[in-house]
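Sequence in, structure out.
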Amino acid sequence: MPSIKQFQVTFDCAEPERLARFWCEVLGYVVPPPPEGYATWDDFKQAQPPEERDAWFACGDPSGVGPRLFFQRVPEGKVAKNRVHLDVRVGTGLVGEERLAALEAERARLVPLGAVYVRTLYDGTEACIPMLDIEGNEFCLD
């Protein structure tokens, strides 16, 4: 059986472009160019039937290493805790106060973007900061 080479992470959401642009800021991802034949994403949206406008948006790792993130509009709101979430790895290789400081600095950067701080988990060595994105999806600074 051949190994899978690529995957994308899909988010169900209310506002695909807004959430995609938030995650671009969090991860340093970029919005791809608009589909062929369109100068801008706004041109592409205007060409869609009204019921399909703003139905999806995507972003990706500019280095091509990380997975593509795909955001699709769904009619229902979020009603329960995520069963899967992203860990934003800002403290890799760090321990103790140095790790905690790196996570807290990232938390301070993300809150003005609309992220919500939940709590800090710290045992003197390991640290993790659970947060919520702009639509209430859980993620962790790790």
